[in-house]
């Protein structure tokens, strides 16, 4: 059961603001403020603005840690409060049964960039001794564990853009096997740096709409020219129904199941047949005990790259059959960009919000459908709808495919 939500995103520094802006179709793509883009071909990204990490962790420790850790701490703090969890009131034995699964794609990459600059300009003696823990992908989960003295399993999976969908698989298994009663579940990423933007630009993966940032991310649109890099974090509190009931918590949604597959095809491009993605969707439905026509909403991976959007469309058709033309589909990336390791949790928050409020957020900037993308992508405007069951897709570099299914809590 999901009992609490936290988010810090390019369109909102908490979950209520993120969700309200997502429904309103607000886009968070802007000119990059974090570094000088003079020599960069791509000058736009979806940044988190107005956030002070000292509000969520000790200022001295904040200076020693990476931005993806700061963002995870903010999302985790909100989720814990939203769920009404009081870890200080728990016994040690109870905290032994609380786990943390917070995933990332790259971790603290800026530590490598900054450390290399210090090394080259000042020498090895001046490189920070905190660089190694600060760049470690597992440190966001570890810091949350330490903040709340949680001594259950601490897990970080690195699976590119699929990784925070996988977080829900791990959380569900920890609870189903009886290892945990509660799991802090999500992902965090802060990839907007000189190297990340330059490398992805040179891959021709990024949109170059520098003159119109707010319209740059255009999933499924015929005029799309690449994705927008984004940053952010999200955490959901996942706990057993028995534990939630025992403490009087009100579940928001249920994690039904999911599946993982691999394309085994290419380091960055999806298999154009869509076979791996189709299998992930089909197996996720089977593992969740849900028929294709029971899915009311699909949160698409929807990156706004040519091959990814058409391949995902093809895979949805193969997995859902005739229902593919009836189910509502949308992509949060049209508003928040591609958050890489936090993309899956951003999608999960959209799915859970849709189930809670019975409204489907739109795909922004979708004006002209690509002929190969001919499904219902809820263009431009949110749609009130009956949403009892929703699926989220996450497809990462290297052919890593992950799908998770959520359902309205049955009375």
What does this structure look like?
The structure is a single chain. With 411 residues, the chain is α/β, with parallel strands linked by helices. It folds into 2 domains: 2-246, Peroxisomal Thiolase, Chain A, domain 1, CATH 3.40.47; 258-407, Thiolase/Chalcone synthase (Peroxisomal Thiolase, Chain A, domain 1). Helices cover 35% and strands 17% of the residues. It contains 14 helices and 14 strands. It has helices at 15-24, 59-64, 67-83, 92-95, 109-122, 131-135, 139-147, 163-176, 194-202, 241-246, 275-288, 306-320, 333-336, 343-357; strands at 2-8, 30-31, 44-45, 98-103, 154-155, 182-189, 232-239, 254-262, 297-299, 328-330, 359-360, 383-384, 389-396, 400-407. The strands form 4 sheets. Strands 1-7-6-4-5 form a 5-stranded mixed sheet, with helices on both faces. A 5-stranded mixed sheet has the order 8-14-13-9-10, sandwiched between helices. Helix 12 (306-320) links the parallel strand 9 (297-299) and strand 10. The chain is globular, with a radius of gyration of 20 Å. The mean pLDDT is 97.
* Morphology call: globular
Strand content: 15-25%
CATH-level-4 superfamily name of the largest domain: Thiolase/Chalcone synthase
- Element-by-element helix/strand order: EHEEHHHEHHHEHEHEHEHEHEHHEEEE
CATH architecture of the largest domain: 3-Layer(aba) Sandwich
Number of strands: 14
Taking all Cα atoms into account, the compactness measure Rg is 20 Å
| Whole-number mean pLDDT | 97
CATH topology of the largest domain: Peroxisomal Thiolase, Chain A, domain 1
**Can you tell me the CATH class of the largest domain?**
Alpha Beta
- Poorly predicted residue ranges: none
C-alpha termini separation? 13 Å
